[in-house]
Write a structure and sequence with these properties.
mainly alpha; Rossmann fold; Serine Threonine Protein Phosphatase 5, Tetratricopeptide repeat; DNA Cyclobutane Dipyrimidine Photolyase, subunit A, domain 3; 5-stranded parallel beta sheet; binds flavin-adenine dinucleotide
Length: about 475
């Protein structure tokens, strides 16, 4: 019986886990490992809220492994050194892991881990746990190819959840790394959702049974979206549930409900699709973690107003809807899509700040932050990646209130300075002589200034291509 290290990363589950299924199939002695790498812990886009959620997922994984007779071993250090050293320490014949291409750093470091293992005669075997293709030419990300691939892979049978696992040798020491302080991170001041595999499955069922019927109608209204979207983002990010499981449950539920609910489920599934398509695009174009897809936009004389950036980050722009959204994000680690989009266009178009800074703040604060979705969405809202019809979709932070927060409850909750202000006066208090922060910029003027700068660059590019289809 050979020893196989099962290296967990962003796949913190036991169900539908290809690397685990392979190790079980060969009846290996499995040693589950998780490595906290300082590169990711100290990354400027890392926030304590998300790490706290990840710690919760690890705790749940630890318990689930324990129930099946196994044990999670945690280590702290440079993964390219820790994994090969651990493999030697436990006399492993192989290390198995699922591919994670969220960051170029991970892809490069995984390559180094594999090389070192192989040099030491230890097998390094990787598995694809997501419905993604190996990075290659356009056939790996254009919609014509990616759509059928996505449906085909997600329709395949899931790997079964084990009912028992081999024990881990008592001599192997698990480093006690359970809290943010253990990892040298500042305390978390956000509301962190319940973590773990069971919670992910419960959220999915709750969504399918109780929320899905309201899904599409709720998306543009702040308070409704908060109630009726699935909240699966952090779980998909850390892999406490596989996309295949979600997809197959959505398909099964679609067979049981009326046409209205089926439409809602189709809308939900299309968003799951975009998530994976963004991941595929980033896998193919890893430079877009930092650079604009349409590179000429990186040479735009973006504003460097640190005071504007600080006001945006802290919800002090003078536009109540933007301020409420930013304060909600900072406090809860979550925002509905429409408000993420509004805050992004306010940052990039109204304030003319480069998308990378806004994305960094979102990454620090969102519990569900995922580089692929976040950075492509930021690029899209900054207008630096689209060539499609909605090149610059600029949200109006005053007129938008009527649709996004019609009763004003969201603004009043997050901007207590405006609690007593009427619905009609909430969107633009300065027009009614109400004492609130003065707006940082005039929206109409700022929009015109930004588009005058950005439109000529847009004209340099061909109108559209398959890559930008969203
Ligand atoms: C500027 C900006 C930044 C964003 N950053 C992130 C991010 O870091 N991580 C993230 O998961 N989503 C991000 N989104 C997309 C979207 O806002 C969130 O996925 C959604 O609000 C999360 O809530 P939910 O989990 O209840 O999603 P649901 O609406 O229930 O959708 C289920 C899942 O589908 C995916 N999804 C939903 N909407 C989108 C979308 N428009 N594009 C791609 N995937 C989608 C997510 O994985 C989500 O968890 C961003 C959007 C914008 C405009």
């Amino acid at each position: 019986m050979r020893t196989v290290i099962l290296w967990f990363r962003r796949d913190l589950r036991l169900s539908d886990h290809p690397a685990l299924a392979a190790a079980l199939a060969e009846q290996a002695r499995i040693v589950p490992l998780f490595v906290f790498d300082p590169h990711l812990l100290q990354h400027p886009e890392t926030g304590s809220g998300r790490v706290q959620f990840m710690l919760g997922c690890l705790e749940s994984l630890r318990k689930n492994l324990g129930v099946l007779g196994s044990r999670l071993i945690c280590r702290l250090g440079d993964q390219s050194l820790v994994v090969p050293a651990f493999a030697q320490e436990v006399g492993a014949a192989a290390v198995y892991w699922n591919v994670d291409s969220e960051r170029a750093w991970r892809t490069a470091t995984d390559g180094r881990v594999a090389d070192t293992l192989q040099q030491r005669g230890i097998e390094a075997r990787t598995f694809e746990a997501e419905a993604l293709l190996t990075a290659g030419g356009p056939e790996t990300y254009t919609l014509k190819y990616f759509i059928p691939h996505w449906h085909r892979v997600l329709s395949l049978r899931s790997s079964p959840r084990p009912t028992v696992l081999p024990p881990v040798d008592e001599q192997i020491i698990d480093t006690p790394l359970r809290t943010l302080a253990d990892l040298g991170l500042p305390p978390c001041d956000q509301m962190v959702p319940t973590a773990g595999e069971r919670e992910a499955h419960q959220l999915l069922e709750e969504f399918l049974q109780e929320k899905a019927a309201h899904y599409l109608k709720s998306l543009s209204v702040a308070e409704d979206a908060t109630c009726y979207t699935s909240r699966l983002g952090p779980h998909l990010k850390f892999g406490t549930i596989s996309m295949r499981t979600v997809y197959q449950r959505v398909q099964a539920r679609s067979q049981q409900v009326d046409s209205w609910q089926r439409r809602n489920l189709a809308g939900f599934q299309s968003r799951l699709f975009w998530r994976d398509h963004f991941a595929q695009k980033l896998r193919n174009l890893p430079r877009c973690e930092h650079e604009s897809y349409l590179q000429d936009f990186d040479a735009v004389p973006w504003s460097n107003r640190a005071d504007h950036y600080a006001a945006w980050c802290t919800g002090q722009t003078g536009y109540p809807l933007v301020d409420a959204a930013m304060r909600c994000l900072n406090h809860t680690g979550w925002l509905p899509f429409r408000l993420r989009a509004l805050c992004a266009t306010f940052h990039c178009i109204d304030l003319l700040l480069p998308w990378q800074g806004g994305a960094r703040h979102f990454m620090q604060k969102l519990i569900d932050a995922d580089v692929a979705v976040d950075h492509w969405q930021w690029q899209s809202h900054a207008g630096v990646s689209n060539r499609g019809r909605n090149w610059f979709r600029v949200y109006n932070p005053v007129d938008g209130v009527a649709k996004i927060d019609p009763a004003g409850t969201f603004i009043r909750r997050w901007v207590p300075e405006l609690t007593g202000v009427s619905r009609e006066q909430l969107a633009a208090p300065w027009r009614h002589g109400i004492a609130y922060l003065p707006p940082l910029v005039d929206h109409a003027e700022a929009r015109a200034r930004a588009l005058a700068l950005l439109e000529p660059i847009k004209r340099r590019y061909a109108p559209t291509d398959m890559l930008d289809a969203q």
